[in-house]
Design a protein that fits this description.
- This protein folds into two domains: 9-178, Rossmann fold (3-Layer(aba) Sandwich); 229-305, Arc Repressor Mutant, subunit A.
- Helices cover 38% and strands 20% of the residues.
- The chain contains 13 helices and 13 strands.
- It has helices at residues 20-25, 27-36, 55-60, 88-99, 116-128, 139-142, 152-159, 167-175, 193-201, 224-228, 231-243, 250-257, 261-275, and strands spanning 9-14, 41-48, 67-72, 74-75, 84-85, 106-109, 131-135, 147-149, 205-207, 210-212, 248-249, 278-284, 297-305.
- It has a six-stranded parallel beta sheet with strand order 3-2-1-6-7-8, sandwiched between helices. A three-stranded antiparallel beta sheet has the order 11-13-12. A two-stranded antiparallel ribbon has the order 4-5.
- Helix 2 packs parallel to helix 8.
- The protein is elongated.
């Protein structure tokens, strides 16, 4: 790779997640860029599902970023499990408006796949006379960049990493195209004025000689609610219902999860019995006509796992 002139303004394009934890993991890569080019200004362009995520204000205040811009790529209520994706031309128009007065020397597409961010990176770089850098996850994607890193699997093989990689490592795939390695670099946090004010108002409590600090950087974004209410949490809910002494009927599980009866029975056979190795026992609800649940079967997990 030929040596790049030292860039003054670098744009980082991301589109994967607006979760606070996911974004903060990218700070290790931001730190590596600042170590390579200390005078460079880093600008984040995040393709966000919806406007107004709680993580926006936190990321805008990160000390390694000169600016952070958030472009909406979906329409609809963020609490809905599915929303309509905006046409690429509308997204491009938002990006153009936000970057109209921004000087750029280097445009880095941090996303490993897809053509949306690759196309935007090429378009932005051409419009600003900048160099486009991205990941050649597949041959066609290579055509959008002036400098391309090998694919994610190739990166993982070279470093002996397993897939999927954690989010902190992900952004270093594209930086490999610039000869920048992670080398154990951690994420970077620095308390801002609001955090320092909170610290002053909440002195650290100690447990013996050790300071006790609790940090929760879970996402908490509005569109996480339907995801939490989908398959993984539904499965946990069903397991809990089956662990109750009284168990649960198919009808009760369907009402709690919005599953169909055949989905519930398939979960019993495929997940509870086969994957988890748990035995399910059932008994018929007896009683005269009109008794609630009469004729249905109650299912519960036996006390011991099946052999």
């Amino acid at each position: 790779m030929s040596r790049l002139p030292d860039p003054q303004d670098i744009l980082l394009i991301k589109a994967h997640s607006m979760g606070i934890g996911d974004l903060l993991r990218a700070s290790a890569a931001w730190s590596a860029l600042k170590a390579r080019w200390p005078a460079a200004r880093l600008h984040l362009l995040m393709l966000s599902k919806h406007a107004g995520y709680p993580s926006e204000s936190l990321i805008r205040g990160h000390h390694l970023l000169a600016s952070a811009r958030f472009v909406t790529i979906k329409q609809g209520d963020p609490t809905q499990a599915r929303q309509t994706r905006l046409p690429l031309r509308q997204v491009a128009a938002q990006v153009q408006d936000q970057l109209a007065s921004q000087r750029l020397d280097l445009v880095i597409d941090c996303e490993p796949g897809g053509l949306r961010t690759a196309w935007l990176a090429r378009r932005i770089a051409r419009g600003h006379g900048a160099v486009a850098v991205g990941i050649a996850q597949f041959p066609l994607r290579r055509l959008f960049y002036d400098i391309a890193a090998p694919s994610v699997p190739a990166y993982a093989r070279r470093l002996g990493l397993s897939l999927p990689m954690d989010y902190t490592e992900r952004d270093f795939v594209v930086l490999a195209a610039l000869g920048i390695e992670r080398a154990g670099r951690p994420i970077v946090l620095r308390p801002g004025p609001a955090a320092r004010a909170w610290q002053d108002a909440h002195p650290l409590r100690t447990d013996g000689q050790r300071a006790v600090v609790v940090l929760n950087i879970g996402c908490g974004t509005p569109d996480a609610a339907p995801k939490r209410g989908r398959e993984h949490s539904k499965q946990a809910l069903v397991i809990e219902m089956l662990k109750r002494p009284e168990g649960a009927t198919i009808a009760q599980i369907c009402e709690a999860t919005s599953w169909q009866a055949h989905t519930t029975r398939g979960f019993f056979a495929g997940t509870v019995k086969k994957k988890l190795g748990l035995a399910i026992v059932s008994e018929k609800i007896e009683g005269p006509s009109g008794t609630p649940g009469a004729g249905q079967r109650l299912y519960r997990i036996a006390e011991e796992a099946s052999a």
